[in-house]
Amino acid sequence: MRRTVFNEDHEAFRDTIRAFIEAEVAPVYEDWENAGHPPRDFYYKLGELGVFGIQVPEEYGGAGETSFKYQAVVSEECARAGVSFGGYGVHVNLVLPYLLKYGNEEQKKRWLPAFVSGAMMTAIAMTEPGTGSDLAGMQTTAKRDGDHYVLNGAKTFITGGVLADRVLVVARTSPATPENRRAGLSILAVDTRSEGYAVGRKLEKIGLRSSDTAELSFTDVRVPVEDLLGEEGRGFEYLTHNLAEERLGIATSSYASAAAAVEFARRYVQERTVFGKTVSSFQNTKFVLAECATEVEAARSLVDRCIEALDAGELTPADAAVCKLFCTEVQARVVDKCLQLHGGYGYILEYPIARLYADARVTRIYGGTSEVLKTIIAKDIQV
Questions:
Q1: Record's family (predicted)?
Q2: Residue 231 a catalytic site member
């Protein structure tokens, strides 16, 4: 079906990203996976390409676009090639919305030019070893001491945490109240060069191996009060504000992964022969790919509707939950079926379908587990 969500500018940008991946990423991607992240200078290349600054206002060195569609193009092209841009997604899709909405003018002038160029890579630290999805239960504290906060605690599963230059750390600046467990949380933009800030283990994951994920610890880290993002005590409110866009970003990459899996499988079955015939000639193969293509089309239509809603300021948390839940489940089914069509070679990492399979599993966990999303959807339909 013809898509209407993208215009000529988006397609020209798509051509640029596709060429960049072919020249700068695909030839060395195996090295990135072995290292656990891209080389640091890769992010400067992304900065030179302009992808970090698309949604950053022009006065801070960006392009001033407000649409999410350019980020969707990047997700689709990375999936198409079976690669990842490492910490790019967290930097642009998670951190940037907080800086734009809650940063004051001084902070934007101080941080955004470096954000755009790739000189300052960012991450966000919410999850703790004992909290998971229960953000209100976090134990990391930041106590005011004159013109600084003193930060103590630990975070885990921090994507981009190894190479980040500044991390948005969610910490408790005052105790929770019996009436509201979510009260008292704040967001501090912490310089990773600060004394007492430490990167622990780089976590070894099943998939997403070119994206670094780390444990962080804070021991009496002194954070200037001018690095508080927004107002003290409103952190939980800020976090929920961006969840819809975060979940749409995951849904977009999940749909794109499923679409890429169909294309990888289609090419493979046309080339592979068994019993003297191509695998594509068997009715089972045709039916499986037809099923997968249908699910991908449904996911694409839902993603496109939600992208338009986000750009119009109308995407609700429940809408985003529906989109992420559906697209990640489609991804799981489609990638699995397409791997099966590869036979034994589907289990070999040199084939992109194997990486897609390993990468797919986390999408039903991060950004809100499928179970959490079902709770949101059930509440929205008043069940």
A1: Belongs to the acyl-CoA dehydrogenase family.
A2: no
